[in-house]
Amino acid sequence: NSNVSFVEDLMAMKASILVAQSKHEKAIEAFKALEDKASNSDNRLIARLGVMRSAVKIDNYAVMEAYADKLLNGSGLSAAEEKEAAFCRAYARYQQGNSEVASKEFAELAKNGNSIYGAQASFYLAELQFGENRLNEAENTLNTFIDSGTEHNYWLARAFILLADIYHKQGKTFEAREYLESLKGSYPGEADGIMEMIDSRLKKWSSTKTKKK
After folding, report:
1. Buried-most residue among 42, 95, 119, 147 (CB within 10 A)?
2. What is the distance between the alpha carbons of residues 85 and 97, in angstroms, rounded to a whole number?
């Protein structure tokens, strides 16, 4: 029915415009309305991806998890979309305190540190391990990621900063500062917050006595 597809096209367009305007709450509602009306699997997929991605923008972890789950249990996802949904679900679970399941899912994604989702999963897996004081595991996770030759500079820098945090927590303040100083001298980015993360630590740690191990 051409009238049905016209209505659904308009609904999809409305939702996309809301996304472009950064009205993510309203976009979620619009995509959910499309999901309810969808007469074919393509529009249902567009709607569910739209809900999940809009939820990511506003850190709505419950919706992220629910819709990533719907997507992963459905069909029609491309390989890239599958990785995206898997990462979203793991990250949402991590943020909601479901660390045990999240760490397994992150570990699976982290096997490919070259993909953007593998890079993020590697970092968050290490952060989770660090938060649970499993420092050796966190260090191993980070070193594996750093050695993977990933091209994702931002996540590589975050990995180096977390490695410095691990050394600092182990009392190796000298090594921690060395890591940060070398990162500061070589990092190519500017406006993404990495320099602030480095400087705030160097400032804080300069007031503590350095001891070399």
Report:
1. 119
2. 18
